[in-house]
Each structure stands twice: as C-alpha cells, then as structure tokens.
Amino acid sequence: MYLAPIIDSVLESKKSSLLGQSTYFHITSILDRAFKKTEPFKFRFETYHDYSKDDFSVSGLYDMTTDIRYIILNFSKHKKTITIKQDTWEIFKFHISQTCQHESIHRDQWQHRDTPTDLETLDFRNTTGSIIDEKLYLADIDEIDAYGHDIAMEIVYNYPKHNPYEILKTIDNRKKVWSYIHYKKAFKGEKWEYVKNRLLKKTFLWLPYVK
After folding, report:
1. Would you list the DSSP string of 23-61?
2. Which of 13, 64, 79, 164 could form a disulfide with 110 if both were Cys (CB 3.0 to 4.6 A apart)?
3. CB < 8 Å & 24+ apart, contacts of 52-57
4. Across all residues in the chain, what is the average pLDDT?
5. Is 110 buried (19+), middle (13-18) or exposed (0-12) by CB count in 10 A?
6. What pLDDT shows up at residue 113?
7. CA angle 183, 186, 191 (to 5 degrees)
8. CA 78 to chain CA mean position, Å
C-alpha cells in the first residue's frame, strides 16, 4: 500500500490510547501528535446533524498551496464522544489509513507542478455540491488515480481470500468496494465507459502494490 507501513505503524502505536470512549477532540489530538514527526498530516473533525449517533467516516484534502494534507474525521452532532472497540479497530484504522494514502497520492501528483494562484483549496472530499460538480470531480485524472488506489485497497481488505483480479473482473457485482459504488451512483443513468475504463485500469495498476 502507498505509505502503508509508516501510516499503519503509527496508528498501531496509538491503538491503546484510541480504544474505548473518547471525545472527538481527544482522538484528533492524539492522531495529530502521533504523525507529527513521521508523516505530518493535519487531523481535524467535523460534526453533522444527519449522522446517527454511531456514524463515522473519514474524508480528506490536499492543500497544494500550503502543502498540507488534511484528514477529517466526520462524526454525529448528537454526541461528543465515540467508542472504538477491539472489533471495530481494524475498520477504523483502515479508513484513516486509506484517506492518508489518498491525500499522499495527491501530494505527489503536485510535486512537480506549478500551483495556480487563484485556486480555491478548501474543498473536502465529502463536501456536498451539485451532481454535475461531483461528476466533474470524479472524472478528473488525479481523482481517478487516487480512487483507483482506494478501490484496490478495498478489494484486498474486503476479499482477502479471493484472487483480487477476479474481484476486479466482477466488480459490478460486489457490495463491499465502496469507492467504486460511489462512482456508479454518481454516474447512474449515464454512459460513463471512458471514466470507468480509466478507473479500472488505475485499480489494476495499483493492485500489485496493495498487500
């Protein structure tokens, strides 16, 4: 996985501190400090009224003007704490690691580019907008590259006993490849073969690096 040994090692080192009930602020503070000396991600949290009490997701942003990778933990406004249990630790770690890797890919994409001076950067991955904006966003080659890596990770994580290339061939019938399902929903009712083929090709190219 892309930077996975470093990212996963840091997360595992803080497992005992993160298990149990913690405030949202406490969790993001632990993660901020944990990654500061290795891979300096900036962790923050957001809360939403339409999240149920135990809902949790992770989104991210690479701000190319400041070279900062933001990782946003999304929680419910109906509580101020979340409980991470032994049996939910792996999926919690997976989603954080996946987003850290996604934003790291974006960082490397911009490593040798000139940053536009009029660019609006604060556009988090889970921000809602028009469906047209969403499709333009997902069709961007940088996003196809990063989401291809997400999909490769989800295939290996959710289908560990299967040949990953067989899962890729039958991906339209799979219910646990969340990032691909996100694309299908966004382009529902439209001809999206060009975007789909590029996305699956990127996934195919990333699979050998996802273990």
Report:
1. EHHHHHHHHHHHHTTTS-EEEEEEEETTS-TT--EEEEE
2. 64
3. 52/76, 52/78, 53/78, 53/79, 54/82, 56/82, 56/92, 56/95, 57/95, 57/126
4. 91
5. middle
6. 79
7. 85
8. 24
The pair of three-digit structure tokens given for residue 65, joined into one six-digit string:
């003007």
- Containing H/E element for 75? strand 68-76
* Segments making up each domain of the chain, as ranges: 4-86, 131-209
The residue among 160, 65, 45, 152 whose CA lies nearest residue 106 is 65
Greater confidence (134 vs 95) lies with: 95
pTM, two decimal places: 0.91
Q: 158: pLDDT confidence band, cut at 50, 70 and 90?
A: very high
| Number of Cβ atoms within 10 Å of the Cβ of 88 | 14
The token pair at 67 is 């070279």
Tell me the per-residue pLDDT of 35-89, one tens digit each, with 9 for 90 and over.
Answer: 998 899 999 999 999 999 889 999 999 998 899 999 999 999 999 999 999 999 9
Task: Kindly state the helix (H) or strand (E) to which residue 203 belongs, with its residue range.
Answer: helix 193-206
